[in-house]
Amino acid sequence: MNSDKKNPYLPALARIVKITPETEGERAIKTFRAEIIDENADSFNFQPGQTIMVSVFGKGESMFAISTSPTRKNIEFSVMRVGRVTLKLHQLEEGSIIGIRGPYGRGFPVEDWYGKNILLIAGGIGMAPLRSVLHYVIDEREKFRDVTLIYGARTSKDLVYRNELETLQSDDINVWLSIDTEEEGWFKVNWDKPEETVFPPETRHFTGFVPMIVLAVKPEPENTVAIVCGPPVMIGFTVQNLEKLGFGDKQIYSTLENKMKCGIGKCGRCNIGSVYVCKDGPVFRYDEIRKLPSDF
Amino acid sequence: MTSYFRGDNLAENVFRANRDSIIKWLKNLTEDYEIWAPARERFEILEEPEKISLEYENTIIPPKEIVFPQTEKLMEFNISNNEVRATLPESRKKVIFGIRPCDARAIRILDIVFRGDYEDPYYTTRKNGTVLVVLTCNEYCEEGFCNATGGSPGDSDSADILMTKLDDESFQIEFLTEKGRELGFDDFEAAEKVEPELPEPEYTKNLENADGWLSYKFVSPEWDKFARKCISCGICTFLCPTCHCFDITDTKNRRIRTWDSCQFSEYTVHTSSHNPRPEKVHRVRNRVLHKFLYFKERNNELMCVGCGRCVRLCPEGIDIREIVESMED
Description:
The complex is a heterodimer.
Chain A: E1 12-23, E2 29-36, E3 51-56, E4 60-65, E5 75-80, H1 84-91, E6 97-104, E7 117-123, H2 127-139, E8 147-153, H3 162-166, E9 174-179, E10 187-188, E11 205-207, H4 210-217, E12 224-229, H5 232-244, E13 252-255, E14 271-272, E15 275-276, H6 277-280, E16 283-285, H7 286-291
Parallel strand pairs in A: 7-8, 7-12, 8-9, 9-11, 10-11, 12-13
Antiparallel strand pairs in A: 1-2, 1-6, 2-5, 3-4, 3-6, 13-16, 14-15
Helix pairs in contact in A: 4-5
Chain B: E1 14-17, H1 19-29, E2 34-39, E3 42-45, E4 71-78, E5 83-86, E6 94-99, H2 101-114, H3 121-127, E7 131-135, E8 161-165, E9 171-175, H4 178-181, E10 189-190, H5 210-214, H6 222-227, H7 235-238, E11 246-250, E12 254-259, H8 280-299, H9 309-313, H10 320-326
Parallel strand pairs in B: 2-6, 6-7, 7-8
Antiparallel strand pairs in B: 1-9, 1-10, 2-3, 4-5, 4-12, 8-9, 11-12
């Protein structure tokens, strides 16, 4: 058992209490809910956007975004099956014991966003860190003004948290889901001039890349913060389009990721210039990102 | 424990000793301390004080491994019983005897890394209580450039005790810290402090403020010129006294930490196969900038102590000084 609380490498024992399959296929995604059962562990408090190092004892550790908000009083993280640790995680069942250490890094400054419009933009598994903000905003809904989510994946089957997102309209959140390739029931945006897309009423499902959907939806920059998570290419084009709409760098937040082993700024590998993504990130404002050397 | 010292007269900090009295001192110290001293290519636990080397060319492997070993066990687990147990090293009082000024300074740099806001208990258990007995260099070692990085052959900044060979017969021994004074020894004679004559450096450029010109040289054609020769063997990092990067891996019942190197492409590759530093040129650049720019931005200190190992031991003759210099306009 965890007998030395001050040892930052020693994980707390945790039990997987719920596993939700999100997507299927070679790179399937599952969401895990875990409860810390280690009586020697400190209480677990985190901010939206922070990360945890998850241990599958005997296989290794991997860093994941916590994909829920501290207001929900539980720990959830979503895992794509791509490597050694994630393969083993996908084989575990409810009740299995894992290790968790953290939380690590700098989260989203959600309290600074009170009274603002929130624009969440995600691609693929990038929805996982954004879901921490989404849950926070739902639970503290009266503290924010208009909330919009634009989320895209390759196909309708690759959208993570699909069922949950389909019901968000009732939480007074504008949801726009998109997929990259055409499917029945998914309205195709104007491919050449997305900003001229004329939406059929009540339509919330689109075919088009996320940056195009952003142009089509035309969110207002005034008193708005945009939080963009997803593949680097998607983030790059999305930010360009946000700029076209009048957003400034200081209104845009994103998360970076890099390979990590320690999570506490010692093992060296997650640096981008003098910044350690594990400690100084993973959340960065876009003006900070622009100052980093192009080493990511 | 044995008292080695004649009293609490802290004014008496400078002593004169000869080889015989130093050997006697070491024999006494072995009762309470684990003594690490230079032996062939690395520091080892001193078994025979009579054989102590008081004039040696610096070891190939730096003494950082005494406080940060190449491989160590972090924890053991018994998965079927849900048991996880940290395996901290045994805490022992140590003396690193005859460590060169550059390597002593490097240990101070490791302190910055491993203490800080998340204290590393494996490092601190080994390091706490360790006394550094630094041996002044009477000559510059081949390719050594401590002077260019803010050090010197007689640098006492990181020493608990500074030992300087004055002539064939005698050594000056200065007790500089409280921890050092605990090792005081009656057979040494109090003496007037002598400023020893230090050797003249061959390399005279100052690289302490290289961050000034490197900060806008992230993009430069020069990097490729040097990186082209690199074979990514990692020697420059494994033999560097300040490099601290590591990997953590599991075996069935254990979690292990091992030195790692930023010169390997696997070091940064994501599981998705994306690699932020896929080419040699990215990795060479990261090593040089970490030493001379990034670490200084974070800690206001260079991460190079000028020991010269990476220059002496690079199989391709890559010289970090030349790289840093070539970036200056």
